[in-house]
Amino acid sequence: MGSVTALIYAAVLIYSFIPPSRWSLPLQLTDLATAAGAYALWSQRHWAAALTYYWGLVLSVQALISPVLRGPDFPHYQFLAFWAIHLLVVWAAIYLTWGRGFRPTWRDYRFVVCVTLAWAAITMTFNAHAGTNYGFLNRKPGTASLLDLFGPWPLYVLVASVLIAIVWALMTWPWERIASRR
Asked: Structural domain of residue 99, as residue ranges?
């Protein structure tokens, strides 16, 4: 399944460069989540499973609940690719956790928070220089989203970051509690 996920993502990435646009770069967190999920499924590496768990079960699910699609509707490849990539990452997170026995720890939580903050800093800087908006870090999407509830920029970035960190902590706590009982 890791190979299938990687092949689908590679096809989406290659096709996004034909013709190249300012949205072709793999800077969305979905891009990283898909790559981490494919690698985690293939290699069973703990760090990749941690990224897949947190990013997949929160951020990819959020994208599925309130999708922001730039392009044609069904049955166009961009539409199908959006849903396939996000669903595969969620599936990978579920499979790695409940099927393969990955158990998140506080160390994994800190790792994913640090990686996500590094991504945000790099991506916000790139967005500012290139005039893009990867990750909706520099402005809200043009369609309605949960970010609309969190105030104007940059407040919504801070509020969303804090909420995500809290949700991730709540996703870690039960596993650590179970581990401490053993």
From this structure: 2-181
